[in-house]
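Schema walk-through. Below, the input block comes first and the output block second. Nothing else is stored per chain. Lengths vary across the set, and this one has 73 residues.
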Amino acid sequence: MGVPIGLGGGSQDYVELDPIRKMDQVVGGVTQRDRLVADISGLDKRTGGASYVARNPADIPTVFADALQARAQ
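--- output ---
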């Protein structure tokens, strides 16, 4: 079992950045799509490290291995 990182307070390991909406819905003058892109771009700052993203399902094993290797260093 992993160690909680407490991003959401206490032992909660996540923070909801944006609720689920239609991608073209405008909130605060910005589309949901643009809000999500901005949030994803800032993930490394929120977690204090790198973010590993698989661009397609076939990349998941490699991305996972890269993340584990970086964590071990």
